[in-house]
From TrEMBL:
Its main location: membrane. It is found in: Cell membrane. Keywords: Cell membrane, Membrane, Transmembrane, Transmembrane helix, Transport. SUPFAM superfamilies: MFS general substrate transporter. GO terms for cellular component: plasma membrane. GO terms for molecular function: transmembrane transporter activity. It holds the Pfam family MFS_1. This is Drug resistance transporter, EmrB/QacA subfamily. Residues 17-466 form the Major facilitator superfamily (MFS) profile domain.
């Protein structure tokens, strides 16, 4: 017997719903990338130090990371419309607060409100896509999702840099706000309820432990990249985070209705593809974080030039995502992951011999090819893992996947910056800029070995969803033959 949600999911046009969800995700990601380029202007206008201003991005990341694990509970407690309308409404309120903020504390509060809404949008979108699309079409759907993830960061920093050069930084938020309101109105008229509600009870202790656990780890790893692993601030926050996370996981196993279901890792394909996704994310951070530092601080390129170097790769990743999604629907994730991670590994090794004379064309070409490899892996691997889960666990799988990506991004940034810094310190003082570049090369060496681990793990992926589809096709053929005889 089909549930009401299952019936409704089959009786409406998927395209308008998907367009609403993707628009919401695009606005949320674009907002996150716009602020990076604008921070120096905000610092000058509000008379902030770099340490104070960075909380505008750190606080957003922390609240966003804390909200994501809670979404699995929220998706089971509220309807799709209630969730998405609330998320976009909260995000719009936060954007308005940021736009009119007269002081730094008000601006920081607005960023926190924004993050509370944005943290719900991404996992909810993935969950809905997996409900409304059958297994054999989910690659295509996730490909569209990948297009948004890649395209928004590609245009965000460049657009932001151009705007703040000519207009006040508050314009950035007033560009985001009307788009958000349009999405909110479209959501009201076009979004359908497709998620299934099981009405779990809220376990307050789980919320507290989850917030302390994921928040502590995210803050600890992010801070380690800037102030060092030996800092008492880093050690204390990471210790509190690790202990809280351990207690949170233990509590989820003893609760009859866990807030976040860790039993998703008992599904082998999901566990394996999640680890591969973490590996790819850590490796990808090398290009996004280390290359701009190298180009601006050691190679005397401008910020605009470093952004232009990253732009072709980001754009091509977006255009490749729908293509790799369709390929995944036909052949599964295994060979896409093997080939993509091989490309990532080889091109990352090509960044281990940088010098003060490495050309802009070389950096752009290698990074673009590297991002094509990442596009071949990221969405197909995520889709293969979530396809393994039964429908009731998909909200928990998407929440887990998004949470671990946040943590992986923090770990990758902290790890590679630490390797870069320590390697540079171990070179003779007379080495100068070449000593710092040696640190960059060592950071990419570590990133290359990490992605090589991903290549090995990819051989263990089995496209179970392909087997299921072929089995259904064989049953259909047998049924037709029986009917004919």
């Amino acid at each position: 017997m089909k549930t009401t949600q299952e019936q409704s999911a089959q009786n409406f046009n998927q395209l308008p719903l998907v367009m609403v969800l993707i628009s919401g995700a695009f606005v949320a990601i674009l907002n996150q990338t716009l602020l990076a380029t604008a921070l120096p202007h905000i610092m000058r206008d509000l008379h902030l130090s770099a340490n104070t201003a960075q909380w505008l991005t750190t606080a957003f990341m922390l609240v966003n990371g804390v909200m994501i694990p809670i979404t699995a509970f929220l998706i089971e407690r509220f309807t799709t419309r209630q969730m998405f309308l609330s998320a976009m409404g909260i995000f719009a309120l936060g954007t308005l607060i940021c736009g009119i903020a007269p002081t730094y504390p008000v601006l920081l509060f607005g960023r926190v409100v924004q993050a509370a809404g944005a943290g719900i949008i991404m996992p909810l979108m993935q969950t809905v896509l997996f409900i409304i699309y059958p297994v054999e079409e989910r690659g295509k759907a996730m490909g569209m999702f990948g297009l948004v993830i890649a395209f928004a960061p590609a245009i965000g920093p460049t657009l932001s840099g151009w705007i703040v050069d000519y207009y006040p930084w508050r314009i950035l938020f007033f560009i985001i706000l009307p788009i958000t309101l349009i999405v909110l109105i479209a959501t009201y008229f076009m979004l359908k309820n497709v998620t299934e509600r099981t009405f779990p009870k809220l376990d307050v202790l789980s919320v507290v432990l989850s917030s302390l656990g994921f928040g502590g780890l995210l803050y600890g790893f992010s801070s380690a990249g800037n102030i060092g692993w030996g800092s008492s601030e880093v050690l204390i926050t990471m210790l509190v985070g690790a202990l809280s996370l351990g207690l949170f996981i233990w509590r989820q196993f003893i609760l009859p209705q866990p807030m976040l279901e860790f039993r998703v890792f008992t599904y082998r394909v999901f566990a394996l593809t999640t680890v591969i996704g973490i590996v790819v994310f850590i490796s990808m951070i090398g290009g996004a974080t280390i290359l701009p530092i190298y180009m601006q601080n050691m190679h005397h390129f401008t910020a605009m030039e470093s952004g232009m170097m990253l732009l072709p790769g980001a754009l091509l990743t977006g255009f490749m995502s729908p293509i790799t999604g369709r390929i995944f629907d036909k052949v599964g994730a295994r060979w896409l992951a093997i080939l993509g991670l091989t490309v990532v590994t080889v091109t990352t090794f090509m960044f281990t011999d940088l010098t003060s004379t490495t050309s802009f064309a070389y950096l752009t070409t290698v990074n673009t090819i590297r991002m094509i490899g990442i596009a071949m892996v990221m969405m197909p691997v995520t889709t293969a893992g979530l396809n393994e889960l039964p429908k009731r666990l998909i909200p928990h799988g998407t929440a887990m996947n998004n949470t671990l990506r946040q943590v992986a991004g923090s770990i990758g940034t902290a790890l590679l910056i630490t390797v870069m810094t320590n390697s540079a310190l171990n070179t003779p003082p007379e080495a100068g800029a070449e000593g710092m570049i040696f640190g960059v090369n060592m950071a990419f060496t570590v990133a290359a070995f990490i992605s090589a681990i991903g290549v090995v793990l990819s051989f263990f992926i089995k496209s179970k969803e392909r087997k299921d589809t072929r089995g259904k096709e064989r049953e259909l053929i047998r049924g037709k033959r029986k009917a004919l005889t």
